[in-house]
Every structure is written in C-alpha cells, then in structure tokens.
Design a protein that fits this description.
The chain is α+β, with helices and mostly antiparallel strands. The chain is 26% helix and 31% strand. Strands 1, 2, 3, 4, 5 and 6 form a six-stranded mixed β-sheet that branches.
Length: 109
C-alpha cells in the first residue's frame, strides 16, 4: 500500500484466534483523504462473522504520522466496535518509511 497514489482503507477481519478471514478494501480516497463511515468499516466483519478487525490505510505522502482525523476516526471506530461487539485491535498507517500503529502509540484507544 505504500506506493499507492490514492489513500485506501482496508479492513482485516479476524476470527476468535486472530487468524485472518479477509482483507477487503472499503474505501479509496483522494491524494490526501478518505472519508470513513463506521458502517462501511464494520460491514466486512459482520459479513464474515468476525471477532475483531484491524483497520489499515496508507498515506500517499509517504509520512506515517497519524493525522488528527486518523485519531478521531479511531476513537469513533473503537466505540462502534464496542456496540457491535467486534473489537478494533489496531489502526495502522502505512507509508514509504514503514508503518505506525495507533494502538502502540495510545492514539484513539
């Protein structure tokens, strides 16, 4: 995802043993943004009867620093996951220099 020209959001759905079920793309945005709606993020999890998800998106700029919007979206998804009983395990930002885990940085969790 680090070489994509547009921002993409993918959701990794996981079973109860955190094994991957699927990894669909749920959004493709512009050069610097992708609107995120919780219903669309959790749809694959519900269809897969998943226990948990990991949200992954890229920053076409290559910078893996989470934006304010990334943190805001993470908080919203954590709350939506609680309601749906599908845990958001992490939100990962991918760029040319690697990746950043919002969970490891305590951002939004």
């Amino acid at each position: 995802m680090e070489d994509l020209d547009q921002e993409q959001v993918r959701v990794i759905t996981l079973d109860t043993k955190n094994r991957i079920i699927s990894c669909p793309m749920v959004y493709q945005g512009t050069l610097n943004s992708s609107p995120v709606r919780p219903a669309e993020v959790f749809r694959p999890a519900i269809l897969d009867n998943a226990h948990a998800i990991i949200m992954v998106h890229n920053h076409p700029s290559g910078d893996v620093t989470p934006s304010r919007d990334d943190v805001r979206v993470t908080k919203t998804l954590v709350e939506a996951g609680r309601i749906l009983e599908v845990e958001l395990l992490d939100h990962i930002v991918v760029g040319r220099s690697g990746f950043t885990s919002l969970k490891e940085r305590g951002l939004g969790f």
